[in-house]
Design goal:
Elements lengths: L4 E3 L3 H14 L3 E2 L2 E2 L9 H32 L4 E7 L2 E6 L6 H30 L6 H24 L7 H14 L1 H25 L3 H27 L4 H4 L13 H11 L3 E6 L2 E7 H5 L11 H4 L5 E4 L5 H7 L5 E5 L5 E6 H14 L3
Parallel strand pairs: 1-4, 8-9
Antiparallel strand pairs: 2-3, 4-5, 6-7, 9-10
The structure holds zinc ion.
């Protein structure tokens, strides 16, 4: 589908941990054996099987995310990337669907894929259970079916919890949005998510379950993020980049030393500048980049030496939400270019925050 797929760095630990748990345990849930330990084979084989199964399991999580992505692409939305994390994956969408029905359907398809995988492998487990004197290969196959089947059923069910950032939270919002509009629906869904999150933390404390407490925290933070994002995109709806950019074209030249640039930053009260030479953009320089250069070298190193040459940019005539997308990529400064690639303005994260606050008041959000 042309979507880049990333693994979060924690995967370096997660895959071995899952492989180890699958290899060295043989616990039983709902009559399904979830590990290879009880099989009469060498330990090395158990570890190999554990590793294969861990990789297959994360592959099924990827299929869940691709389910979301497929629906998004079918409805004309683009997916920037998919990142696999400890608790599943995250498909980074360029923006939230505006039609609630699309969002609801898109959110449902992910857990739907997990249920489908669960409903293929779980019966396969029980079918293999009926065999008399199964060999070790069949036993290993059966455990693999059990792990993939049951964990996918649990994953599907877990994601249907009606709390952001779970898929269920999105399904709930899409139902509410038909009746009360996007913002009100988001706020209501966020309240529900907070109640779930607090409930999970309380349950986790009383049952000494660190895992449940942790998920409660993730839901709480995720819900708040969702509310902020919705407010931002509603405030910026119908507004063009040129209306929110700072048209004062402040810049520094590539030959300026870092100490001179810091001086400009003091004068202008800002932490980043475009670097411009002969009217054309070279890159962007920020206080954070200067911070990485030792103090003793800042009189010799120039802005041109450290400038970020692939800066975030947006076109002046496109929707202002483009600035939001450009900023979310760990960049706190967006350069605005017109249709002739001419540098016409800029906007920082701080400026955007102020603009969104004012627009929110103007639109009475
Ligand atoms: Zn999902």
């Amino acid at each position: 589908m042309g979507i880049p797929i990333y693994f979060h760095f924690t995967f370096l630990f997660i895959i071995p941990i899952f492989a180890g748990v699958f290899a060295l345990t043989s616990g039983d849930i709902f009559g399904i054996t979830l590990g290879y330990y009880g099989i009469d084979i060498a330990l090395a084989w158990k570890i190999v099987l554990g590793a294969i199964c861990a990789i297959l399991f994360f592959f099924t999580i990827l299929l869940h995310e691709l389910g979301h992505s497929y629906v998004a692409l079918r409805h004309g939305y683009s997916i920037r990337s998919i990142t696999l994390l400890i608790f599943g994956g995250v498909a980074q969408m360029e923006d939230t669907p505006k039609q609630p029905a699309v969002e609801g359907w898109m959110a449902f398809v992910g857990p739907g894929v997990s249920f489908l995988i669960g409903l293929i492998f779980t019966p396969a487990y029980f079918a293999l259970d009926g065999l008399r004197n199964p060999g070790v290969a069949v036993q290993a196959l059966q455990v693999t079916c059990g792990i993939l089947g049951l964990y996918n059923l649990l994953l599907g069910a877990f994601n249907l919890i009606p709390a952001f950032p779970m898929d269920g939270g999105r399904i709930l919002r899409s139902f509410l949005a038909k009746r009360m509009g996007m913002l009100k629906a988001t706020q209501t869904a966020v309240k529900v998510a907070r109640i779930f999150a607090i409930g999970m933390v309380v349950v986790g404390i009383f049952t000494f379950n660190v895992f449940v407490i942790f998920i409660g925290f993730i839901i709480y933070v995720g819900a708040a993020d969702e509310e902020t994002m919705t407010k931002f995109s509603l405030a910026l709806e119908g507004v063009k980049v040129e209306e929110i950019m700072n048209p004062e074209v402040l810049w520094v030249s590539p030959s300026m030393t870092l100490n001179q640039v810091l001086g400009r930053m003091m004068e202008e009260h800002r932490t980043s500048f475009p670097v411009v030479e002969d009217g054309s953009l070279v890159g962007v320089i920020s206080a954070a980049q200067i911070d990485r250069v030792p103090k003793a070298q800042r009189d010799t190193v120039t802005a041109g030496n450290v400038a970020d040459r692939a800066p975030a940019y947006a076109r002046s005539y496109v929707d202002a939400t483009e600035v939001l997308k450009a900023l979310s990529d760990r960049k706190d400064f967006v350069v605005v270019l017109d249709e002739h690639d001419e540098f016409v303005g800029s906007i920082t994260k701080d400026e955007l925050l102020s603009i969104v606050t004012v627009l929110g008041v103007k639109k009475a959000l």
